[in-house]
Amino acid sequence: MTPENTLGVVLAGGLSRRMGGGDKPMRTIGGKTILARVIDRVGPQCDGLILNANGDAGRFAAFGLPVVPDCVEGFAGPLAGILAALDWAAEHRPGIEHVVSAAADCPFLPRDLVARLQDARVREHALLAVASSGGQTHPVIGLWSVSLRADLRHALVDEDCRKIDRWTARHALATVEWPSAPLDPFFNANRPEDLEEAEKLAALDD
């Protein structure tokens, strides 16, 4: 599966409560923002990259990416950001069939993320694919079919379904496992103490 079929979205629409508020992806690790690290990892794997974020889009202007806010009000969680990306792809990139989502607080994402998710989706005849490591699924890191956007909108708006696992359970889903050692590629920096751990892990990262 070629990158031409896949748009990337970095999900940065959360409230960062555990980090004490503010834009968590703008914290630095090894002198580089977490968001910049995510973009460097995911961007080359996709045919285009957008940023899902709410509030003043200008604060991300330096990254040169389209900033797409949630289309469902009330900070409905990652599914709202995924839906916004699917809608954006349908409107602006009608040739795109899939969107891959990445959390904006995961600085060490694998460089084969899109290829492996797409391969698993095709091999298992699935509509969706999600990442896993160390026996733990990471539902925010996934591959989503643009064709499911109406179904997702119904789940979010009409059913108030905000848990990713609850929605993905309705569809054919492939799960792709990555090794968690020596570094878990889906490590996420949620709390201030996680930033200290990330500094150490950055030394293991190429």
Characterise this structure.
The longest helix has 15 residues, at 78-92. Helix 2 (78-92) packs antiparallel against helix 4 (149-158). A 7-stranded mixed sheet has the order 5-4-1-6-8-7-9, with helices on both faces. It has a two-stranded antiparallel sheet with strand order 2-3. With 206 residues, the protein is of the alpha/beta class. The protein has helices at 34-42, 78-92, 113-123, 149-158, 164-168, 192-202, and strands at residues 6-11, 28-29, 32-33, 49-52, 67-68, 98-103, 128-133, 136-145, 173-178. The protein has a single domain, classed as Spore Coat Polysaccharide Biosynthesis Protein SpsA, Chain A, CATH 3.90.550.
State the end-to-end CA separation.
26 Å
Order of helices and strands: EEEHEEHEHEEHHEH
Secondary-structure arrangement, i.e. CATH architecture: Alpha-Beta Complex
Q: Class by helix and strand content?
A: alpha/beta
According to CATH, the homologous superfamily is Spore Coat Polysaccharide Biosynthesis Protein SpsA, Chain A
Overall pLDDT, averaged? Answer: 89
Reading off the top of the CATH hierarchy, the class is best stated as Alpha Beta
The portion of residues assigned to helices is 25-40%
Q: What fraction of residues sit in β-strands?
A: 15-25%
Could you list the spans in which at least 5 consecutive residues all have pLDDT below 50? 15-21
Radius of gyration: 16 Å
Number of domains: 1
Q: Tell me, what's the shape?
A: globular
What is the CATH T-level topology? Answer: Spore Coat Polysaccharide Biosynthesis Protein SpsA, Chain A
- What is the total tally of β strands? 9
* Count of helical stretches: 6
Q: Could you give the order of strands across the largest sheet? A: 5-4-1-6-8-7-9
State the major sheet. 7 strands, mixed
